[in-house]
Amino acid sequence: MFVKLKKAGFEAYLVGGCVRDAVLGMKPHDYDITTNAKPEEIMKIFGEENCSEYGRAFGTVGVKYASGFAEITTYRTESDYTDCRHPGKVAFAGQILDDLSRRDFTCNAMAWNPDSGLLDPFGGEKDMKQKILRCVGVPSARFREDALRVLRGMRFCAKLGFTADPLTDAAMRAAAFELKYISAERIFSELCSMLMGDDITRVLLAYPEILAVRIPEIRPCIAFTQHSRHHDFTVWEHIARTVGNAPKNLTVRLTMLFHDISKPQCYTIDVKGGHFKTHAEKSAVTADKILRRLKSENHLREQVCRLIYYHRSIPRSLPAVRKILTVLTDEEADMLIEVFQADSISKHIGEPENDRIDEVAELFKFVKDKKLCCRIKDLHVSGNDMINLGFEGKKIGLVLKCLLGCVISEQVPNERSDLLSLAEYIRDGGLL
């Protein structure tokens, strides 16, 4: 692409995330190119059949090449931001420096091409070596242009281990209220990406008030002392630690973010200390409301809420494990173990409590390995069998649930003859 643009008499540079990742020694995921060629000139050079005009209004043309797809954007300047997100005016620029000057952080304001190498007018390479997140130009102006940059900054800190320099940090906090104007989908996308960072605990501890702009349910958790021998940390400190101690699975990390979100509303205290009865159930309800508000995908929301609901139901026996598995899938059961573990190791400053999570994990494994009956579909009888016995309508499901309960509690084996006999007993005794 560089060659074609150069032969046509134009400049071209790789810019943005691909340059940042390369400087950090990471493999870039995609490639963005900027040039002084106008969109119509780009399409002429590469052929209209190879180009997509989806971003032409902002000077961007998508170009197909042998091994993928690249975005090529004309040098531009932006102004008149009216919605805390999008520029009202976009003008083409003649210099690469003008284009880099409009970018958010120094780590994203570098450019590279094969002839001149790295172009770094704002010291992005030095900042990255020092793990500093610094705005290009005046920080407050950068965040006024696009409030979503506040969360992007937090994401870079969480995923790359950066720390915002004092001016950038102060501007992030001052601009946070403008996040209320950003779409829920954008907020949720940044939140999910941020949660997958290695340094997410540090970021959550540093910026809870920023997240609370769009998730106000966080605010009561901040500095809420638990007064419990089971917890050395405030509710928010515990939450932040559980997220960082969880594996990099989005469902699990979202679960940890919201698993204790309703604790302050459930708080009571007596001579034995603080208590949070029913907080798991109430946190599941609160998480459902938050995730709906943030436009989460339904399956993800439902899984997170189920895991939150059961995060305090640590089963200590085989029947208890089998009872949980009537509700959770095998995948969710594996994630629940990870939830138990992250919760357990995030309670104390020193050694964790002996919650015997490993023993619980072994129970789950035993049930799976032995393929023990835990769900109606595992029963050795079916709905048709119940119909043949004379059950109708809702009673078919009720009798199957009853049979499952008896199998799980080990009152009857999962054998066809035994189950049919029990179903006949229920029918003849008029128990449904």
Please provide a written account of the structure:
- The protein is of the alpha+beta class and 432 residues long.
- It folds into four domains: 1-124, 2-Layer Sandwich (Beta Polymerase, domain 2); 131-214, Hydrophobic Seed Protein (Orthogonal Bundle); 215-372, Hypothetical protein af1432 (Orthogonal Bundle), CATH 1.10.3210; 376-428.
- It contains 22 helices and 13 strands.
- The chain has helices at residues 2-7, 17-23, 39-46, 96-101, 124-129, 139-145, 148-160, 166-175, 184-195, 200-206, 208-211, 235-245, 250-258, 263-266, 279-293, 298-309, 318-324, 330-344, 357-370, 383-388, 394-408, 416-428; strands at 12-15, 32-35, 51-55, 60-65, 68-74, 76-81, 87-92, 111-113, 117-119, 132-133, 163-164, 268-270, 273-275.
- It has a seven-stranded mixed sheet with strand order 3-4-5-2-1-8-9. A two-stranded antiparallel ribbon has the order 6-7. The protein has a two-stranded parallel sheet with strand order 10-11.
- Strand 6 (76-81) and strand 7 (87-92) form a beta hairpin.
- Helix 13 (250-258) packs across helix 16.
- The protein is elongated and about 90 Å long.
- The model has no long low-confidence stretch (mean pLDDT 93).
Strand and helix map with partners:
Layout: H1 2-7, E1 12-15, H2 17-23, E2 32-35, H3 39-46, E3 51-55, E4 60-65, E5 68-74, E6 76-81, E7 87-92, H4 96-101, E8 111-113, E9 117-119, H5 124-129, E10 132-133, H6 139-145, H7 148-160, E11 163-164, H8 166-175, H9 184-195, H10 200-206, H11 208-211, H12 235-245, H13 250-258, H14 263-266, E12 268-270, E13 273-275, H15 279-293, H16 298-309, H17 318-324, H18 330-344, H19 357-370, H20 383-388, H21 394-408, H22 416-428
Parallel strand pairs: 2-5, 10-11
Antiparallel strand pairs: 1-2, 1-8, 3-4, 4-5, 6-7, 8-9, 12-13
Helix pairs in contact: 6-8, 7-9, 7-10, 10-12, 12-13, 12-18, 13-16, 13-18, 15-16, 18-19
